[in-house]
Amino acid sequence: MIDVQADAAHNRMVVTFVAEPALAVDAAMAGATVATERIDLRHHRGEHPRMGATDVVPFVPFADLPMSVCIDLAHDFGARLWKELHVPVYYYGEAARRVERRELEKVRRGGFEELFTHITDADRVPDEGPPELNPSAGATAVGARIPLIAYNVNLKTSDLQVAKDIAKTIRASSGGLPNVKALGFELADRGLVQVSMNLTDYRVTNIWKVFSAIRDEAKRRGVEVEASEIVGTIPLDAAVGVIKDAVVEPAFRMDQILEKRVWAAE
Question: Are 140 and 192 in contact (CB under 8 A)?
Answer without folding.
Answer: no
